[in-house]
């Protein structure tokens, strides 16, 4: 990849993140109420004007929104995401504790979903219109139609009735403390996430596989006597890889910010729960920090997908050099 291409992508990534920072900041300030109201509830109405002014000064809410933004953005350039208005803990520490949980959950869900989705997509595409094709598509449609919160709730209810297991945030075990204990806690939420992901990957794989299977080079390979297994994996699946990689990259970026419901149901202290707590308490620093991190993850994953494109398809490398 050329230096010009890399510089252009980096500039675009930085511009996207600045735009996200501005939008999130403006939207949060446009919401009714503030941190004081969210923290004190109905007791906020009993505050005197001097008490409210003192609290606004303490939380840094007495300055103009423009000043607040540049103060926060200036700290961001130095790696400081601010301090939680609710707990007084630096946001970087809160994110540092929550990110490994969400990252592990996302990786585990992808490890389960991608192989299952690709294999069932190939299975369905190998006999289009047959019973197994229609069956796989029907199961995939069901996996996409059922909301995650329904699957998660049913799973927790089943775990409670079958094993007397009820998720609790206070019982979370990190992978460093106990690999087996951590896996027992993370496996079921990962399976819940993997259902919809596998269905999405399956549908993408089926479409890309059918398109590649009708190409001239596939007929030529079969005419030369290449084994069917080699034709399917080396010729068809390899050339169907770009749409699959795109979907996997998009879904992984989504997982880093879209596990809120599953983390809440299974009481996992990840980014989703941290973001939800920040929203409920109107903790501006937490919401801004987590949202910016999720946006950065999407941007980086998108860049990684482009790199994989160029490894899978030499034509994109030549187009990049001409550009």
Overall domain count:
2
Level-2 CATH architecture of the largest domain: Orthogonal Bundle
Distance between the termini: 11 Å
Overall strand count:
0
**Unreliable spans:** none
- Radius of gyration equals 24 Å
- Outline type: globular
CATH class of the largest domain, named Mainly Alpha
Superfamily at the CATH H level of the largest domain?
MetI-like
Rounded average pLDDT: 83
SSE succession: HHHHHHHHHHHHHHH
The structural class is: mainly alpha
- Sketch the major β-sheet: none
Percentage of residues in strands? under 5%
GO molecular function: dipeptide transmembrane transporter activity
Protein name: ABC transporter permease
Membrane topology: Multi-pass membrane protein
InterPro entries: BPD_transp_1_N, MetI-like, MetI-like_sf
Can you give a write-up of this model?
The chain has 323 residues and is mostly helical. It is built from 15 helices and no strands. The chain has helices at residues 3-30, 35-40, 49-58, 65-77, 91-126, 131-145, 148-163, 179-213, 216-223, 228-239, 241-257, 260-265, 271-280, 284-312, 314-322. Helix 5 (91-126) crosses helix 8, helix 8 crosses helix 10 (228-239) and helix 9 (216-223) runs antiparallel to helix 10 (228-239).
Note the topology.
Layout: H1 3-30, H2 35-40, H3 49-58, H4 65-77, H5 91-126, H6 131-145, H7 148-163, H8 179-213, H9 216-223, H10 228-239, H11 241-257, H12 260-265, H13 271-280, H14 284-312, H15 314-322
GO molecular function, one term: dipeptide transmembrane transporter activity
Domain ABC transmembrane type-1: 99-309
Pfam family, one: BPD_transp_1_N
């Amino acid at each position: 990849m050329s230096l010009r291409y890399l510089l252009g992508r980096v500039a675009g990534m930085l511009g996207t993140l600045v735009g996200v920072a501005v939008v999130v900041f403006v939207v949060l300030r446009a919401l009714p109420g503030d941190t004081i109201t969210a923290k004190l509830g109905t007791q906020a109405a009993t505050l005197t004007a001097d008490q409210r002014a003192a609290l606004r000064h303490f939380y840094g809410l007495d300055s103009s929104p423009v000043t607040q933004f540049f103060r926060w953005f200036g700290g961001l350039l130095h790696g400081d995401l601010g301090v939680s208005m609710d707990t007084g803990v630096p946001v970087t520490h809160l994110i540092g504790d929550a990110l490994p949980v969400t990252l592990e959950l996302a990786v585990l869900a992808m490890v389960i979903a991608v192989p299952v989705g690709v294999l069932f997509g190939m299975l369905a595409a190998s006999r289009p219109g047959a019973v197994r094709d229609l069956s796989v598509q029907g199961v995939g449609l069901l996996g996409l139609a059922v909301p995650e919160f329904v699957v998660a709730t049913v799973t927790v209810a089943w775990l409670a009735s079958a094993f007397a297991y009820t998720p609790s945030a206070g019982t979370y075990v990190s992978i460093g403390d106990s690999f087996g204990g951590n896996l027992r806690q993370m496996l079921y939420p990962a399976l819940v996430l993997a259902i919809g992901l596998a269905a999405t990957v399956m549908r993408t794989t089926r479409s890309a596989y059918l398109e590649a299977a009708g190409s001239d080079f596939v007929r030529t390979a079969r005419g030369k006597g290449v084994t069917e297994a080699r034709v399917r994996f080396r010729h068809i699946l390899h050339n169907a890889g770009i749409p699959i990689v795109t979907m996997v990259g998009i879904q992984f970026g989504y997982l880093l910010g879209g596990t809120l419901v599953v983390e809440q149901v299974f009481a996992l202290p990840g980014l989703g729960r941290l973001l939800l707590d920040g929203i409920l308490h109107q903790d501006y620093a937490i919401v801004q920090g987590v949202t910016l991190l999720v946006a950065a993850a999407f941007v980086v994953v998108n860049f990684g997908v482009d790199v994989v494109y160029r490894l899978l398809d030499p034509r994109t490398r030549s187009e990049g050099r001409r550009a």
